[in-house]
Write a structure and sequence with these properties.
Number of helices: 7
Number of strands: 5
Structural class: alpha/beta
Shape: elongated
Oligomer: single chain
Radius of gyration: 18 Å
Distance between the termini: 25 Å
Length: about 200
């Protein structure tokens, strides 16, 4: 019961949100606009808007990723860009996401929006896609250390996500206040090889 009261209080304070924020949808609009001037492919720079294609590859079946997909679809329709969405994997898995990536003919894709399930395991897959002239934009999770200006992950055009360090700090501070800065607090995480947890 105490954990429910704490969660409800964090929601009221705006520290934790039970639904995906509306700005998630506008992120997709920014991604679409950014790629028009930044796509590395010659075929993309000479193509009309109607012939450009964005593919979204989510990390897992989840309301958050569904909201990102809906925003990307809406922004693509508004911009007159073709949009394709990969199957939403049932589990958070490198193998499952790699299988989804292998389904697409990236010769017709200009931009790949992906929530990578690992900071390292998909790096070579994404580099190969980039070498085919596809701009890679990561959402929610990043590859490597998230610094796309140099190193092995500099092929990625951009990362769009939240600052989980600041979010975690704010939640911890508020949680400490709610428990009177005494006692133990249990923190649960999911996967060690992902940037968003």
């Amino acid at each position: 019961m105490a954990d429910r009261r704490i969660l409800d209080s964090l929601r009221r304070e705006g520290v934790v949100q039970s639904a995906v924020p509306a700005r998630t949808l506008s992120i997709a609009v920014l991604l679409v606009l950014a790629f028009f001037g930044c796509t590395p492919s010659e075929r993309s720079s000479s193509a009309s808007l109607e012939s450009r294609q964005i593919v979204f590859v989510p990390a897992v079946e989840d309301p958050f990723y569904r909201a990102i997909g809906a925003g990307a679809r809406s922004a693509s329709e508004t911009a007159g860009v073709q949009y394709a969405e990969a199957e939403y994997p049932e589990v958070w898995s490198v193998d499952a996401q790699r299988a989804v990536l292998q389904e697409f003919d990236f010769d017709t894709v200009d931009v790949l929006l992906i929530g990578p399930v690992s900071t390292a395991a998909l790096n070579e897959d994404l580099q190969q896609i980039h070498r085919r002239g596809v701009a890679v934009i990561t959402v929610d999770t990043y590859v490597g250390d998230g610094d796309y200006t140099e190193g092995n992950d500099s092929y990625a055009l951009s990362f769009v996500g939240t600052d989980n360090w600041i979010g975690g700090k704010e939640v911890a501070e508020r949680l400490a206040e709610l428990v009177g800065k005494e006692g133990a607090v249990y923190v649960n995480t999911t996967h060690s090889d992902v940037s968003s947890v």
